[in-house]
Design a protein that fits this description.
With about 220 residues, the protein is an alpha+beta fold. It has helices at about 5-10, 20-25, 30-50, 55-60, 65-80, 95-115, 120-125, 130-140, 205-215, and strands spanning about 140-150, 150-160, 165-170, 180-185, 185-195, 195-205. The structure holds zinc ion.
């Protein structure tokens, strides 16, 4: 277990195992990371308590996880069939996608602690770029709030899918040719064109990032 393994497993969200704890107790950097992550999880739980969308529990009951998983798998298959697979892009690190990873590693917890925005306002603000309804079909929206990113107003969404947590950065009015990609320190990001702007998707697993990208395009 080294610092990179520790951080990767912590961000994957499956809790701290024995090997991780042993490393953390001897490592000041990872102890700081662990404390910040704890505050993040706490904020996320708080956000979830006040912001469960109307009808969510009913929708979850009607849409079992298995169906969501199949939907995501099908979306990933579509990307592979289109020749996107192979991850040759890993050699070309895009600066915007890299900035998305930096956001998750350095700014995400702070952004969540600033508090969520009202869901109906989020629906309105995101409608032209990445409708919140489309995001809700892919996973559970745990947080949505405005955040400055890349010198513009953007919207920060924390999404859980059956495979784990992903972050979306919705950038209205910022058009680009996509997708752009980057990976570092156990995180992977893709930025794709969407509506009148673009969306960054960041997670610890490149296959999950791709699945979510495919599902959001569908
Ligand atoms: Zn460490």
């Amino acid at each position: 277990m080294n610092c990179l393994d520790y951080r990767r497993q912590l961000l994957a969200g499956s809790g701290e195992g024995d090997a991780m704890r042993v490393h953390r107790l001897g490592c000041a950097a990872c102890t700081a990371e662990w404390a910040q992550h704890g505050a993040f999880e706490e904020a996320l739980r708080g956000a979830l308590q006040v912001a469960v969308p109307e009808g969510f529990v009913e929708r979850m009951a009607r849409a079992p996880a298995l169906r969501r998983r199949r939907f995501l798998a099908a979306a990933a298959g579509t990307l592979l069939a289109a020749g996107v697979g192979g991850y040759a892009w890993l050699a070309r690190q895009d600066p915007l996608a890299m900035a998305c990873i930096d956001f998750v590693m350095k700014e995400e917890a702070k952004s969540i602690m600033m508090g969520p925005m009202p869901r109906d306002e989020a629906r309105r603000m995101l409608a032209g770029t990445m409708p919140l309804e489309a995001v809700e079909r892919v996973g559970q929206v745990k947080h949505v709030g405005p955040c400055p990113f890349n010198g513009r107003n953007a919207y920060h969404i924390v999404l859980t899918v059956p495979q784990g947590k992903v972050t979306l950065l919705v950038m209205p009015g910022y058009r680009m040719d996509g997708p752009r990609r980057a990976a570092k320190e156990g995180m992977s990001a893709a930025v794709m064109a969407a509506g009148d702007g673009s969306v960054g998707i960041i997670g610890t697993d490149v296959a999950v990032v791709d699945s979510v990208m495919g599902a959001l395009k569908a």
